[in-house]
UniProtKB/TrEMBL annotation, chain A:
Coiled coil segments of this chain: none
GO cellular component labels: plasma membrane
Main location as per UniProt: membrane
Signal peptide (residue range): none
Keywords: Cell membrane, Membrane, Transmembrane, Transmembrane helix
Official protein name in the record: Amino acid/amide ABC transporter membrane protein 2 (HAAT family)
From TrEMBL, chain B:
Protein name: Amino acid/amide ABC transporter ATP-binding protein 1 (HAAT family)
Gene Ontology molecular function terms on file: ATP binding; ATP hydrolysis activity
Species: Murinocardiopsis flavida
Highest taxon of the lineage: Bacteria
Keyword Nucleotide-binding: yes
From TrEMBL, chain C:
Chain segments carrying region Disordered: 116-151
Listed Pfam families: BPD_transp_2 (PF02653)
Entry similarity comment: Belongs to the binding-protein-dependent transport system permease family. LivHM subfamily.
Cellular compartment(s): Cell membrane
CDD domains given in the database record: TM_PBP1_LivH_like (cd06582)
GO molecular function terms listed in the Swiss-Prot or TrEMBL record: L-isoleucine transmembrane transporter activity; L-leucine transmembrane transporter activity; L-phenylalanine transmembrane transporter activity; L-valine transmembrane transporter activity
Membrane topology: Multi-pass membrane protein
Protein name stated in the entry: Amino acid/amide ABC transporter membrane protein 1 (HAAT family)
TM stretches of this protein: 162-184, 205-233, 253-276, 302-321, 350-370, 382-410, 416-437
GO CC, one annotated term: plasma membrane
Keyword Signal applies: yes
Amino acid sequence: MDFLSIFSAALGSAIGPIAAIYALAAIGLNMHFGYTGLLNFGQVGFMLVGAYGVAVSVLTFGLPIWAGFLASIACAIVLALLLGIPTLRLRADYLAICTIGVAEVVRLIYRAPVARDLTGGVYGRQGFADGFDDANPFTDGLDLGIVSFRASDLWVMVWAWGLVGLATLVMWLLMHSPWGRVIKGIREDEEAVRSLGKNVFLYKMQSLVLGGVFGALAGALIGLNQQTVTPDQFMPQVTFYLWAMLLLGGAGRTLGPIIGSMAMWFLLTLFDEILRGLDSIDMLPFFGGPEVGAMRHAIVGLVLVLLIIYRPQGIVGDRKEMLVNVK
Amino acid sequence: MSSDPTDAAAPDRPVPDRSAGIEPVPGVAKPDPILRADGIRRSFGGLTAVDVDHLEVQRGTITALIGPNGAGKSTLFNLLTGFDRVDSGQWTYEGRSLQGLAGHQVARRGMVRTFQLTKALTRMTVMDNMLLAAQGQVGEKMLGGLLRLWTTQEAANRKRAIELLERFKLDTKRDEMAGSLSGGQRKLLEMARALMVQPGMVMLDEPMAGVNPALVQSLLGHITALRDDGMTVLFVEHDMDVIMGISDWIVVLAEGKIIAEGCPDDIRSNTQVIDAYLGASHDDPAAATGEDR
Amino acid sequence: MRRRLVTVLLAVVAAILASTAPAVADDQGGVNVNGQIRQPEEVEGIDITVFKGDEEIGKATTDPAGKWDVELPEPGDYRVVLDQKSVPKEFVVDDPPGHELEVKVREGQQRTVVFRLAPPGEQESEASPSESKDDEASPDDEGDAAGGIDSSTPFSSQVVQATIAGIVFGLIIAVSSIGLSLIFGTTKMINFAHGDMVTFGAMMALMFSTSATFGAMSLVPAALLAVILGGLLGLGLERFVWRPLRKRNVALIQMFIVSIGASLLLRHVLLISFGAQRNKYADFRIQELLTLGPVSISPRNLSIALLAIAVLVAVGLMLQFTRIGKAMRAVADNRDLSESSGIDVDRVTLYVWGMGGALAALGGVFYGLYESVHWQMGFHLLLLMFAGVILGGLGTAYGAMAGGVVIGLVATLSTLWFPAQLMVAFALAIMIIVLLVRPQGIMGRRERVG
């Protein structure tokens, strides 16, 4: 096994476009869960409508990409309202059930034959990112010695990390304002906040919308990064990756989702590469190469369980802040 | 701001007794009611938890709501403050109907409640707890918060919060987490936080529950001080001694109905009240409704 | 205790992996995917791209004979996408198999991938629910209707058939979701892994009934074993995961996340152990339909329905008349009150988990018989189960039964007008309406859920 190349692959994925995109979506989840205490198990649904927001606007309606981003944001707002209106007045577990269900249903609707004219059905959409590529100012890739990126990666990275920075700034400003104080109060005890004259439902809805918009922007970037979107890449597992990242980094912390995403991608790639290395020299005890992908999902599940049990505060979190109670 | 809080039960109050001369019968009309409720009903499953025909609360008094366990005191409280929904009935505060309003809307009208189990926001600082209660904050709107339009207002709120914390002797704790306070201090914080809303009426749900006996006198002093500042206080309590000492008026609830009303001396001699207290079971009917499911 | 928790988790994973590890092919060599576009004729110049996850692995263009191939770096799961824009105007991509396929490439394998073209308008209707999805190349087509409603029959008889199929499906949901509802009632925890407990039952029965190691027993004893194992899984989860977590006062929200993690773990351990293909039980595959007037039903589905009804009645009698059953209902109704009136709440919770696990496994076997066994079957059933228990009233056993049947019926009837894969959407729509109108469900007590 070539440890240097394994390490370089892991490092590359930790700072690459995918890690940035997941960090952005995890920032949205941090808004929901980390600060507000909302159990959103369907963040992938926001990513899906975001990705298709750009793809469909550009391809079907011939709009420019910036308008596609606006459409993504609009779709996320609609989805948040759809989820929030029935559930945000109820106990936290109802939101959890609805989010996990609605995200999956959104995927099924987007891949259904009835939606094919708009979404391309199971085939998804391709070729909507040409305008984005044409605007790429990078002509050469970047070689930093141990890691290197292609020009197209660099262009996505600029946008993705740029949006991550912007989202982080917005989150920092908001959470250090009276608005953030109300949000944190809701996480602590929403009845108390209600007794002080705050419209808890409205704040929860704003939180759901804002976090959902970050998720949708992440989805739009996924589309631009891959040049293609298909419904089936937005499986429920994506949400659980985001949860693992958020909890690994530290929920309720400004930098938690970013650190979590980078650390998680580093570890996942390391894990993948080592397993592949072992597989190639026939050292895998129980399973063959094809199972590596599934193994990864299983490991993410295990990480979630172990994190909650042993280190609910993650890498940078405050243990006390994480002991949030269900209301 | 207030007199020495330890002379809570002192008979010679500086303010006139606003409940003098009202006839001690259930549902009696008061000369200047701040809260007026009619036909409030709420049942859980088949069991009626609250069934109050008429209730008025006199402005500027301390009114106690008492009754055996499961009499429906807390439920009535929740109904009046918009934290639960009535099956039927209507009620007005300062002459305006509160029916159908949500909890936060009732609070904005000026009727602010506390909770039996203190809801100090434990993982926020004492100061943040206070600031959260200020009304009409620009910074609590999303855009206002983002654009930092709130710094002047925040400074003014902070000043008011410090004054209130001084009054409740919590000013030294202002930067500590609310969770690090003792039970009694949390009750004080909750009361101070309620005042931060600038209410016309405070509704205290068992303010003495779980408080160190040494602190009870100080708490009582603060409650009378509220009244002496012109505020109306309605509180739920079941410790008779506490109630008799500070209440101007007492409303007795049993099995969801008002069985007696009057000033402490009337209640002390009311045989119905004594029966209700001795004869009632200690099960909570609201919790026991679902056995047939 | 922490250490024991981890040890148990790891032991479970290792045991499952060890017992069912697939044989790894020894032969080395390059792996690739290849194919030839030759239906209806050989077409040159079609672009085909291979992805791994989101990453592009390679590209190929068909040669004059319609042939293409892409070298792969290693075995694994790949997504092969045919660029539809490169298809000449006179053709469209036929579906199935569609223009995008998931393939699993094994060590040393030269994997052939089939794309078909067809003149526009002549491609197979993709909306028709087909049951022949057993080959590996089919994309994960979840939620295909098992009713197999033939569009050539008159509509009224379609309705009758769909109603029957819906009742059978609803009974399956009901059996599976009693545990989900009672577990919520007793512990206030939503067991997101419940769907995967369903899959576990179906997979175990499949293993016992097909694997030579177990003598390829017939389905009935295999199902019994699966139900016992499902019960043990429930007991084990409660005893070694949930009870310790409760004793440590882990907040409910955290428990939800643990259950999500557990579901992800269980689902993918099953995937690794048994593969991604759809399987059918060897027994009761093809049967003559029993016909009675306008109603016809296969003996298989009739038996499922009758057995499910028997199980539901038995569970109902148990809850109504036995001590443990009454205790279960009492704890589900009010845990604190039950505890203070002398019920051993921990023991009752343990039994609820055991019963819930066993019923989920049984539901899994039924569902596997009704459709097919697949590693994602439980997750999709979970969404329907959620809809059912919320409709019936979260925390009540009878509510779960009634809600499950209604949801199964509605979901199946929706396939008369809409594609089968959307039936989950209708179930969820009902759930959302219930949450708006009567959040406590049909049979739930009006209480504070907000």
